[in-house]
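Dear colleagues,

As part of the handover before I leave the project, I'm documenting each prediction I ran so the next person doesn't have to rerun anything. This entry is a single chain, and its sequence is reproduced below.
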Amino acid sequence: MYMSRHFVAYKNSSLHYCLWGTGNKLLLCLHGFGETASGFHVFEPFLHREYTIIAPDLPLHGETLWHDPLLFTAEDITAVIDSIPALHKRNFSLMGYSMGGRIALHLYQHMPGRIKELILIAPDGIKINIWYRFATQNRLGNIIFKYVMRNPRFFFWITRVLRKGGMINTGVYKYVHIHLQNADMRMQLYNIWTTMRRMKPDIRQIKSLIKANKTTVVLIYGRFDRVIRYTTGEQFRSGIESFCDLHILDAGHRLLTEKNAAVIATLL
């Protein structure tokens, strides 16, 4: 199916986005860490008649050229959204995968009235990891984080100790080590985590907004996901059951596949 590519200027940067479909409903999709907008193309065959799908490359990802400081806020993404002609001042459905789920939650918190449907696929941000908080929300922690990414031997040693002590699970351990194999990947992790540090959803407030706005929420997890467990979705759904459906697929963290997309499309 046809996909068009576009760029919007924002501050000193140029953000790239993809657009598919011809449907009357608008669906904004936010990708995960190290992914790109094109990952959502798997939904196009199943949703193109009902939705127009818009997926941007987030800062430091894909074809987006980010020339601004390492900081991306709710105000930034709101401005970017309204720079996209298809989305300008319009209501839309919002889908977020993994890291994109955390950004989607934070965005919903700031504009609940414009988001008609919130679709979270293995979303980060419902439960914040203590190490992530230390590395991004604490000035000393961020200095240490940067140093460790440049000098990782101690980091690799401590993660092995933490895994043996049961403080991090095997899935997270493997995920981290896969993404930190070389210096470029480590600095990419540092830059992206630091850039997204203000994306801090307040889950209690978000659940109150969901009830107040009667927002439809769809949660989708992989049963065998060792990175983001479906139990966090069960906790999030508590108290908003009448607005929120939880679905667990027989999959791991990699949920953006054609097979899973066919199933997910039936849930929207």
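The mean pLDDT is 93. The longest strand covers residues 3-10.

All the best with the project,
I.
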